[in-house]
Design a protein that fits this description.
heterotrimer; A mainly alpha; B alpha/beta; C mainly alpha; A: ABC transporter involved in vitamin B12 uptake, BtuC; C: 14 helices; globular
C-alpha cells in the first residue's frame, strides 16, 4: 500500500463546481427511483390507484392502497436508508483502513451480527426481526471492537493490512461457531436462512421504525468525517503532522460504521457488494476528496439498491427475487473490474 | 450386494438364537411367520427374496409407523427429526426399539449393524430412484445401511391410499394378521372417514380449497401433483386448486410474493400442518398486511393439512375427520 | 585462515548432523502419533473395538464379519479421509506459506477453499449433483479461485500482503455467492450444503478417497523434490535469482502441486479451515532449526485433523462437522498469531 498523493487542490476546486449540481441531480434520480419502487412491483397496480393512495395516505381497505402504503412505502424508505447506510459505511471503512476491499463482510461485522442473532434464536429462543435488530447491532459492535483491538497492537497502530487480517480471522472463527450451532438446530437454520440472504421483502413499518433512528443518526454523523478521512488518506504520519488524532478518528469512524452496518444488517440481513462497489464508483466520479465521496456514496447506494430491488420484483413476478441475489449478479462483474483495474494503492 | 451376505448369515443366526418367540402361528390362512421362503416386490419393481421371513426389521419413520399399525414391530427406526416430534411416531410407544437416527441423512449404521437386521424398509422415491434415508445427499456412511440387509419399500407416488395398501401387503407378507379385528378396525375407520368426507364434499357444492404455507418472504401454494394426500382429496371430489405456474426448479410449490398473496381466492385454506397452530392465522394477519386480503384467511377458514407424511390408515382417518369438519363448516361463497 | 575455515566447516557439519538427528526423531514421533490416532479413530464409535482387532481387520489378518463390516466399511473410510486430507492440507499449507513468504498465506485463508466450496454447493443445490461430480466441481472451483487470484495479483508478482488482501476479498466474494446459492435451496439440501461447507471427514466417498491417495502418492514426493528450489526461494527473491534459480517457474510448479493437493482434499472433506494454516508453523517449531519440512508439516496436519475429528464426533454432545472444531480452535490461534506478530511490529 503506497501512500496516496495529496488531492490536487486546483482539480478539486474545478471539480467542486460540477460536483455540487451533480449531487442535486442524484437527489432527483433517487426520487425517481423511489417513485419507481412505489409504483412498480410483482403486482400490477394502476398508477392512478397508487397516486390516490399516496395522496390520501389512508389505507381504505382496497388491495391497491394496502400494498402501496403498507408494503411498498415502508420497503422503499427502508431501501433508501439501508442503501445510504451501507454506501457510507463502506466508504468510511475503505477510507479508514485504506483498503480497497474493506467491506462490512470482510471486517467481521456481518459475522458478528449473525453470531449474535443465532445466539438469540438458539440459546435465548427469541424470534422476530424486531429482536434481531438489537442482537445484530451488539454483534456488529463486538466484532469491530475485537478486530480493531487486535489490529491496533504494536507500535505502528492499526494499519490497513492488520485490520483486514484481524477481520478475516474473526470472521472465520465466528462463522465456524455459528455454523456449529446452526447445524444442531433445524429451526435456527430455517429462520436464519431467510435472514441471511439480504432482502427488503417482508420488512414493514415496525422494522422501519425500529432501525430508522439509528440509521438517521449514523448518516448525519457519517457526513462529518470527510475532512478526517482526507487526512488519513495522506498516510498516518502526515495526518498526525496535520494535527489529527488518528486513533480517536478511527474509533469514532468505527463506532459510526458499526451503527450503520449493524442496523442495516439487522433489518435486511447482510446485503453485500453495495458497500464495497458504490464507494469506488463515487471515488471515480469525485476524485479522492472524501467530503464529496461520502455524500455521493450516500445517494448512489440507495439508487443501486432500489433499482436492484425493483428489478427483482418485476422480472420474477408474481414471485420475487431477493435483492441480494440481484445485486450478486449485477455487482459481481463490477467487483472484479474494480479489483483488476482500479489503482488499488490510490485509496 | 455381495457385501451383506456374510452379515446376513450372522444376522439369521442371531435371529435364530434370539428365539423365534413371536412365531405363534395359529394355522389359519396367514403366511407362516419366520418360515420361508419369503419374497416381496418393492416399489422399485425389484423383488426381494429371503430363505426365511424377515423378523429383524429396520424401518424409516413413517414406514415403521405403518408396519407397527399392522402389529409388525421393527428392531430399529431411523427418522428425519426427533421421534418425539415426528408426526408419524410421536404418539407411538417406541420402547424396546433402537433409534438409529433423528436427523435427515444421518443413520448410525454401526448401531444398525449390531442389531443384525434382515430387512430394511424405506419408501421408494421414483424421482430420486432411492429409498428413504439413502437418497443422494445423505451422509456417505448412511448409504451403507443397504449393505446390512436387503432394502424394500412401497413407492411414494400419487396416493397415500396406495401407500397404505402397499404397507398392508408388506406387513401381511411378514406375517401380520391384517384381518384380525383390532388391526382391521383402522382400515374400517378410514373407509368410514372417506365416506363421510365424500359426503361432506358433495354437500358443500362449489367449495374450493388451496393448500398454502405462508413464510416470511413469500406465500407458497402447494402443487397437488407432488402431494399424494392432496391428489387423494381431489379424487374424492374436493376442488383442490392446481397453481398456474409452479416453481420450475422446485415444482412442489408456486411461490407468490406478498404483493400477490391474494392471487387465488379459495373458500378454505389447507394450511401446511408443519407450521399450523391454532393462533397462526391471526399472527400472520398481523404480521403481513396482505394475508387477510385472502378472504378465507380473513374469515378464519383454515385447517391443518397433513403435508407429506401420512403412511397409515389410522393417521389418515384422524386427519380426514378434521378436514371433514372444516369442509362442512366452510362457506363456499367466501372466496367468491 | 585455513584453520578457521575448517573449524567453521566442522561446526557446520556437526550442526547439520544435530539438525538431522532432531528432525529424524521428530518425524518418527509424529508418524507414531498419526498412526495411533488413525487406529483410535477406528476403535471408538457406537461400540468399542480393541486396537489389535482393528489392525487385524484392516490388514485382513482376522475373519470376523461383524467387526470387519464396522471397521472396513464404516470406520476405515473416515480414518483414511482424516489421514489423507490432513497430509494434503498440511503439505500444501506449508508450501503456500513458504512460497509466498507469509504465515497467513494458507489456501483456506486466501479464498481457494471458498472457490471449491462455491462450485460444490452450486453442484449440490442447482444441479442436484452428488458424489464424483461434486468433487470434480470442487476441483474446478479451487483451480478457478487460484487462477483468478494469480491473475489479479500478478502485476506486482505474488508476494506480500497484496496477494493476501486480494485473496481475502475473493474469499468474501465467494462466500457471499455461496449464501445466495444456499437460499435457493430447500431445507434438506441447505443442511447438506451447510455440512459440506464446514467440512467433514466423515462423508468421504470411495472414488474421491482413491483420487486423494493417488494424488498424495505422486504429489508428495514431487513436492519434496521441489524443496531445493523452495529453500532457495526462502532466502528471498533476489537472492534466489542471483543463485540462478528460475524463481517464477519454480514457484508456479510448487504452487500448482500444492493447489492440486488442496483441491483433492477439499473434494474429499469439504473446506476444512485452519489445518493448512497451522500445520506448517507447528512443524517448524517442533523441528527447531531445520524448518520447512513438507513431510513434517503433512504429518502435523494429519495428526491435527484426526484429533479434531475425534473431538467433533465423539467428545461433543452432538456430532458436528470436523470443520467446526478446527475453526473454533484455529481462529483464536490465528488471532494470537496476529496479536504477537503485531506486538513485535511485524504485522505489516
Amino acid at each position: 500500500m503506497s501512500v496516496a498523493s495529496p488531492p490536487a487542490t486546483t482539480r478539486t476546486a474545478r471539480r467542486a463546481s460540477a460536483l455540487g449540481p451533480g449531487l442535486v441531480a442524484l437527489c432527483g434520480v433517487l426520487a425517481l427511483v423511489a417513485f419507481l419502487s412505489v409504483t412498480q412491483g410483482s403486482r400490477d397496480i394502476g398508477l392512478s390507484e397508487v397516486l390516490h393512495a399516496l395522496r390520501t395516505f389512508d389505507d381504505d381497505g382496497s388491495i391497491g392502497s394496502t400494498i402501496t402504503l403498507e408494503l411498498r412505502v415502508p420497503r422503499t424508505l427502508l431501501g433508501i436508508l439501508v442503501g445510504a447506510a451501507l454506501g457510507v459505511a463502506g466508504a468510511i471503512l475503505q477510507g479508514v483502513t485504506r483498503n480497497p476491499l474493506a467491506d462490512a463482510g470482510i471486517m467481521g461485522i456481518n459475522s458478528g451480527a449473525a453470531a449474535f442473532v443465532v445466539f438469540a434464536i438458539t440459546v435465548l429462543g427469541l424470534r422476530g426481526v424486531g429482536v434481531y435488530v438489537w442482537f445484530a447491532f451488539a454483534g456488529a459492535i463486538g466484532a469491530l471492537v475485537l478486530v480493531y483491538a487486535i489490529a491496533s497492537l504494536g507500535r505502528e497502530g492499526a494499519t490497513p493490512v492488520k485490520l483486514a487480517l484481524a477481520g478475516a480471522a474473526v470472521t472465520a472463527g465466528l462463522a465456524s461457531v455459528t455454523t456449529g450451532i446452526i447445524m444442531t438446530n433445524v429451526d435456527a437454520l430455517n429462520e436464519l436462512r431467510f435472514w441471511q440472504v439480504g432482502s427488503l421483502a417482508g420488512r414493514y413499518a415496525p422494522i422501519l421504525t425500529g432501525v430508522a433512528p439509528f440509521l438517521l443518526a449514523g448518516l448525519v454523523a457519517a457526513l462529518g468525517f470527510g475532512r478526517a478521512l482526507n487526512g488519513l488518506a495522506l498516510g498516518e504520519d502526515v495526518a498526525k503532522g496535520l494535527g489529527q488524532h488518528v486513533g480517536r478518528t478511527r474509533m469514532a469512524a468505527f463506532a459510526v460504521v458499526a451503527v450503520l452496518a449493524g442496523a442495516a444488517t439487522a433489518a435486511c440481513g447482510p446485503i453485500v457488494f453495495v458497500g464495497l462497489v458504490v464507494p469506488h464508483v463515487a471515488r471515480f466520479v469525485c476524485g479522492p476528496d472524501y467530503r464529496w465521496i461520502l455524500p455521493y456514496s450516500m445517494l448512489l447506494a440507495p439508487i443501486v439498491l432500489l433499482l436492484a430491488d425493483v428489478l427483482g420484483r418485476v422480472v420474477a413476478a408474481p414471485d420475487e427475487l431477493q435483492v441480494g441475489v440481484v445485486l450478486g449478479v449485477v455487482c459481481a462483474p463490477a467487483f472484479v473490474a474494480i479489483v483488476r483495474y482500479a489503482r488499488l494503492s490510490e485509496v | 450386494m455381495r457385501v451383506w451376505r456374510p452379515i446376513l448369515a450372522v444376522a439369521v443366526l442371531g435371529a435364530a438364537l434370539a428365539g423365534c418367540g413371536s412365531n405363534t402361528d395359529g394355522g389359519d390362512a396367514a403366511p407362516a411367520a419366520a418360515a420361508g421362503p419369503w419374497s416381496f416386490t418393492g416399489g422399485s419393481g425389484q423383488v426381494v427374496k429371503a430363505d426365511k421371513t424377515p423378523t429383524r426389521i429396520i424401518a424409516h419413520a413413517g414406514e415403521a409407523a405403518a408396519l407397527m399399525s399392522f402389529g409388525i414391530t421393527p428392531v430399529g427406526i431411523y427418522a428425519d427429526e426427533s421421534v418425539k416430534t415426528d408426526p408419524n411416531l410421536k404418539n407411538l410407544d417406541l420402547s424396546g426399539i433402537t433409534i438409529l437416527g433423528e436427523e435427515w441423512g444421518k443413520i448410525d449404521v454401526e448401531k444398525a449393524a449390531s442389531l443384525a437386521p434382515d430387512l430394511i424398509v424405506g419408501d421408494w422415491w421414483p424421482a430420486e430412484k432411492a429409498h428413504s434415508g439413502m437418497e443422494e445427499g445423505v451422509d456417505e456412511k448412511s448409504k451403507k445401511l443397504a449393505e446390512l440387509a436387503p432394502v424394500t419399500g412401497v413407492s411414494q407416488g400419487k396416493s397415500i391410499v396406495e401407500l397404505a395398501e402397499g404397507y398392508e401387503d408388506l406387513a401381511e407378507s411378514l406375517g401380520a394378521k391384517v384381518d384380525s379385528p383390532e388391526i382391521a378396525a383402522n382400515k374400517q375407520r378410514f373407509e368410514e372417514s372417506v365416506a363421510k368426507f365424500k359426503e361432506a364434499v358433495a354437500a358443500n357444492k362449489g367449495l374450493s380449497v388451496a393448500a398454502m404455507s405462508p413464510a416470511d418472504d413469500k406465500v407458497y401454494v402447494a402443487n397437488p401433483e407432488y402431494a399424494p394426500e392432496l391428489l387423494d382429496l381431489q379424487s374424492w371430489g374436493l376442488d383442490v386448486l392446481n397453481p398456474e405456474s409452479p416453481d420450475p426448479g422446485f415444482p412442489y410449490w408456486e411461490n407468490l410474493s406478498w404483493e400477490n398473496a391474494d392471487k387465488y381466492q379459495p373458500d378454505l385454506i389447507l394450511w401446511d400442518g408443519r407450521s399450523y397452530t391454532a393462533t397462526a392465522n391471526d399472527e400472520w394477519g398481523k404480521k403481513q398486511p396482505t394475508w387477510f386480503k385472502l378472504k378465507a384467511a380473513k374469515a378464519g377458514a383454515t385447517v391443518a393439512w397433513p403435508a407429506f407424511w401420512l403412511h397409515t390408515y389410522g393417521d389418515f382417518a384422524t386427519e380426514l375427520d378434521k378436514l371433514t369438519t372444516a369442509v362442512k363448516a366452510a362457506d363456499p361463497n367466501v372466496g367468491g | 585462515m585455513t584453520i578457521t575455515a575448517s573449524t567453521v566447516d566442522a561446526m557446520l557439519r556437526a550442526n547439520r548432523r544435530r539438525r538431522n538427528a532432531r528432525s529424524g526423531v521428530v518425524l518418527a514421533s509424529l508418524a507414531v502419533l498419526v498412526f495411533a490416532l488413525f487406529v483410535v479413530t477406528m476403535m471408538i464409535g457406537s461400540f468399542r473395538i480393541g486396537a489389535l482387532d482393528v489392525v487385524a481387520s484392516v490388514l485382513h489378518l482376522a475373519d470376523n464379519p461383524s467387526v470387519d463390516f464396522v471397521v472396513r466399511e464404516l470406520r476405515l473410510p473416515t480414518a483414511a479421509a482424516g489421514l489423507g486430507v490432513g497430509l494434503a492440507l498440511g503439505a500444501s499449507g506449508t508450501v503456500f506459506q513458504q512460497i509466498l513468504r507469509n504465515p497467513l498465506a494458507s489456501p483456506d485463508f486466501v479464498g481457494i477453499t471458498s472457490g471449491a466450496g462455491l462450485a460444490a454447493v452450486f453442484g449440490i443445490v442447482l444441479l442436484q449433483a452428488g458424489g464424483l461430480v461434486v468433487s470434480g466441481l470442487a476441483l474446478g472451483g479451487a483451480l478457478l479461485a487460484a487462477t483468478l487470484m494469480y491473475v489479479l495479483a500478478w502485476r506486482d508478482g505474488v508476494t506480500g500482503y497484496r496477494f493476501i488482501l486480494i485473496g481475502i476479498g475473493i474469499a468474501a466474494f465467494f462466500d457471499g455467492l455461496i449464501g445466495f446459492v444456499l437460499t435457493r435451496a430447500q431445507l434438506f439440501e441447505a443442511r447438506q450444503a451447510m455440512h459440506w461447507l464446514t467440512g467433514s471427514v466423515g462423508q468421504a466417498g470411495d472414488t474421491e478417497l482413491r483420487l486423494l491417495f493417488g494424488g498424495l502418492l505422486i504429489l508428495l514426493p514431487l513436492a519434496m523434490l521441489l524443496q531445493r528450489p523452495l529453500r532457495a526461494l526462502e532466502l528471498g527473491d533476489d537472492t534466489a535469482r542471483t543463485l540462478g534459480t528460475r524463481a517464477e517457474l519454480s514457484r508456479a510448479a510448487l504452487l500448482g502441486t500444492a493447489l492440486v493437493l488442496v483441491a483433492l482434499a477439499v473434494s474429499v472433506a469439504g473446506p476444512i479451515v485452519f489445518v493448512a494454516l497451522v500445520a506448517g508453523p507447528i512443524a517448524n517449531r517442533l523441528l527447531g532449526a531445520a524448518t520447512g519440512g513438507i513431510v513434517a508439516a503433512a504429518l502435523v496436519g494429519a495428526a491435527l485433523l484426526l484429533a479434531a475429528d475425534l473431538v467433533a464426533v465423539h467428545v461433543l454432545p452432538t456430532p458436528l462437522p470436523t470443520g467446526v472444531v478446527t475453526g473454533a480452535v484455529g481462529a483464536p490461534y490465528l488471532l494470537w498469531l496476529l496479536a504477537t506478530t503485531n506486538r513485535q511490529g511485524a504485522g505489516g
